[in-house]
Amino acid sequence: MQKNTLKKIVINTLFFFLIISCGGVLAERPKLKHISDLRETAQLAKEKNLPILMMFGTDECPYCELLKEDFLIPMIISGHYQDKVIFREIHIAAHADLIDFSGNKITVGELSRRYGVTLFPTTVFIDSNGQPLVKNIIGITTPSLFGGTLDDHIDKALGVLRNNQNSE
Questions:
Q1: What is the residue extent of each domain of the chain?
Q2: Which residue among 23, 66, 142, 145 has its CA within the 20 to 30 Å range from the CA of 99?
Q3: 39-81 residue pLDDT tens
Q4: Helix (H) or strand (E) holding 152
């Protein structure tokens, strides 16, 4: 009887530590924040002196999902980009409206046209005034090399933003 009781205690203890150690895995995975009011994101970018990375995508786009799941969300989780860029998503939907940098109500389609977005995913890098900082990334090139391309664009956008501020 004691042997079974000891066995139960050991198993319960192991199970407890297994649950505790999996806590990070079981926690909800971060998501890209959707933009509904560009002024809020612009204010945050201005306060933190960071560029904004906007990923334009759709539900039906497997490459959009690849970009989010294999690149952007892991970048957010890593914590290495907190002082480099603000990540946001613009979800292309037929009747979605949002507030632009000037406080005007516009459609997502209008915003897409402003930044020359015609294919998905397209990654746009802008400052807190909505001005493009570097060339858009259209689609995903070779996935094994894409992380480097994304890093280069983030670094260039941050450099352009800071150089523009120093020259004012």
A1: 31-166
A2: 66
A3: 999 999 999 999 999 999 998 899 999 999 999 999 999 999 9
A4: helix 143-166
Residues 6+ apart with CB under 8 A from 147: 71
- Note the helical H segments in 60-142: 62-67, 73-78, 108-114
Asked if 99 and 39 touch (Cβ cutoff 8 Å), the reply is: yes
Structure tokens belonging to residue 161: 């933003």
Residues in the chain: 168
CATH number for the domain formed by residue range(s) 31-166 = 3.40.30.10
Q: What type of residue is 20? A: I
CA distance 129 to 123: 17
C-alpha–C-alpha distance, residues 86 and 94, integer Å:
25
Q: Reduced to 3 states, what is the DSSP secondary structure of residue 99?
A: strand
Find the range with the poorest average confidence among 14-28, 35-49, 66-80, 119-133: 14-28
Mean pLDDT score of the chain: 86
Average pLDDT of 76-93? 94
Residue 124 zone, left/alpha/beta (φ > 0; ψ -120 to 50; rest):
beta
> pLDDT-derived band of residue 166, with 50, 70 and 90 as boundaries?
confident
